[in-house]
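User: Can you predict the 3D structure for this chain?
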Amino acid sequence: TSTLILTTAVLVATCFDSLANDETWAEKLGFPAGRRVLMLHCDDIGMCYEANYAAKHYMTTNEYVRSCAMMVPCPWFNEIAAWCRDNPDHCMGLHLAMNSEWKYYRWPPVAPAAEVPGMVDEDGYLWRGTLQTALKAPASEVEKEIRAQIERALALGIQPSHIDTHMGTLYARPDYTEAFFRCAMEYGIPANVIEVTPRTEEKFRKRGIRQLDVLAKLIESYTLPKLDDFDSVPNGDTYDEKVENFFALVRDLPPGLTEIIFHPSQETEGLKKITNSWKQRSWESTMFDDPKVHQFFEREEIVFTSWVDIMDRWRKRTAASSD
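Assistant: Here is the predicted structure, written as structure tokens:
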């Protein structure tokens, strides 16, 4: 999942024109110059109860984890949606899911299957893989599903803080991306988009991405705030190795606004039956409560934010520039 998301990020990043000056997006949004600003972001919420449990814990007890994204088609979305409605001050976005990747644990589209026939397999579930979707689903159906997921959240009384894409599928084809950005701007809900810099361009080229200007024309009219960088919490063979890998990732970050995603889930036998990444997810459900992680953040003088904070700053910036 993290590889696909990183692939997504580079496709977005390289579509942007270079910054008019050396200001980072952190500085554009009013954060102190020269500081590393992190958004620690819980992904795949609503996928299962174990993910919901971990996300609610972090959002209510942890000062560093301030952002989550929910998967509307998934079996446990209704539970986290009810909690979100009762706790509206938390930053809860939508992790737009065009795929259902697990072997046994599956979900269908939110839109009626008859209206999005190219998006579903012979069992009526969303295709497991991004490539399958890209080969079979027209952009009109993908846009219908994007809107269905957003509208379902709105109907349940949720105002999403942002939208992003599960498995990178909304960047698999330019017409998917066009639909994604169109919906983001029409609803006024930001998509997680990364500014192009020499660092991000080189970083993602190393992951085998070529022709990075393919989506440039689609991005020109995108008017919502962006990120300076994007990554995911690294894996590790042990918990301690995982934490050290995360520390190394953060130490290497330049000043600017970076989103780092992770997939926290309470460890249960049920989680083990869903995904073979259960150990990494269970470690991620506790690592940001670890005092040594907190001490690391303090030593490194990290500033923390959320999509709610970013959009508040963006609106103030926009209002000030129009005066």
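The longest helix spans residues 139-155. The radius of gyration is 19 Å.
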